[in-house]
Amino acid sequence: MALAAEFEASGLSRKAFCTGRGLSVGALDLYRKRARESPSGPRLVAVDIRPATTHQPNRAAAELTVVLANGRRVEVSAGTDMVVLECVVAALERA
Among 45, 56, 57, 64, who pairs with 76 as Cys (CB 3.0-4.6 Å)? Predict the structure, then answer.
């Protein structure tokens, strides 16, 4: 988990790191625990890249769209907060 690695490299106390990012210390501890427990090396998933087929005029264009096996979509726009994205990915991994 990138957040855990960022904390370890920061040299800050847990409280100072979390205050600067709007996180609770408990949330950081959870990220650190998951980073320690995760298997070493990247996990690979199959990716199918297709051009967009529909246009939705009232929505901003997504830079990246992930379609899960159950049909749910995760769309990530340019400028997305990486901490928020990490939380979404962590939640999806738990589901």
Answer: 64
Dihedral sign of CA atoms 23, 24, 30, 33 in order: positive
Query: What distance separates the 2 farthest-apart alpha carbons in the chain?
Result: 48
Tokens of 81: 């907060």
DSSP string, 10-28: H---HHHHHHHHT--HHHH
Within-domain flag for 49: no
**Whether the model pTM is above 0.70:** no
Residue 74 is encoded by which pair of tokens? Answer: 């995760």
Tokens coding 92: 């999806």
Residue type, 88: V
Residue at 36: amino acid letter: R
Domain count, the chain: 2
**pLDDT tens, residue by residue, 53-68:** 555 555 566 677 877 7
